[in-house]
Amino acid sequence: IELYILHFCFMIEFERFTLSNGLRVLVHRDSSTPIVAMNILYKVGSRDEDPERTGFAHLFEHLMFGGSVNIPKYDEPLEQAGGENNAFTNSDITNYYLTIPKQNLETAFWLESDRMLNLAFSQKSLDVQRNVVVEEFRQNYLNQPYGDAWLLLRPLAYKVHPYQWPTIGKDPSHIENARMEDVKAFYTKYYNPSNAIMVVAGDVDTEQILSLSQKWFGSIDKNGHFERLLPAEPEQNGERLLETERNVPFDAIYKAWHMCDRNNSAFYPADLLSDILSAGKSGRLYSNLVMKQQLFSDLNAYVTGDADNGLFVINGKLMKGVTFEEAEKAIGYEISRLCKEPVEPDELQKVKNRVESLMTFSEMRVLDKAMNLAYYEFLGDAGMINQVVTHYNTVTDSDLLTAANRIFSNQNCSTLRYKAI
Q1: For a Cys staple, 310 with which of 96, 195, 304, 314, CB 3.0–4.6 Å?
Q2: CB 316 within 8 A of CB 298
Q3: The whole model's pTM is what?
């Protein structure tokens, strides 16, 4: 079988300007669609939280839809204008996005600027969203099989950096006990123009977006500037193991190794290593340990891709009768191959092709382009989006060996054994 080298990604062109209050705005013109996408990325995630008040970034993902000074219900006017919206939060960012017909674009500016200007902090809204988040915590993390795995794995791997808790927070009591003054202070610090990136993509021009941005966002106070000072995670110098028992159907294992941040050039070979191990049914873990040896019912490898130093993770569920020792030995063998044996050219090209095809598909929808531009601007420069495929394509088998030996040492590994009872 001959593997062809794919080259069908296209350049995403954009223009950029910054308002006097610090709001960065990017404009991408796509005249092929009557739909315009607006994405506002706030540079705040769970890593920015007080260790005694976690889950606030996720709480605000909900609160921002609870009404603002001039708009009691965010969704109603957007839906009346033919728009749709959603949001997500992770360790590094909180991202709000919407799509709307071109002729109703100003409605989006009105809605987004109003909740950036002054969110309606009623006790009723806080109580409602607090209950929603606490119920989500219990349902998805405490009462669901394997739901608390990351609540256990993160503090095992991170001892200093705030990645030690997940986006939902450490404990539901942090949200249950959230005080109005704490919530308002969090909003004032992080939800303002100087801490936001806005991307507008669609059949628009920069002058139009500049005019609308100045009209709707220009008068919002930037609320000052703060310096993000997060503690760096020290190098891990010893293997860590945590064993827990839960009422689940199968034993499961989670192994995490520290690796570089998303902006580091070493990220690309590390990411390709995860694809070699776990990209579909042809990945080594599935092919060898699930299908051939039948040690696992499923087994995956992935990188967290965080803005600060992240994790390379392998996790899966063991087949009945397979011991943790047998499972770890099998995973260790596959890892040792990556550390000792160069990856064959065809296998490397296959995962590179996969990355390129995924990037190309992610550049087809106007909303995806808006979200991607915002994210790369958050990383430092939206123009990096046009260099991603090149970075992956220049990775060599020697780079993979270097990355594997840098990451996969026993003293750099944290293991969670999740035992079924």
Answers
A1: 304
A2: yes
A3: 0.94
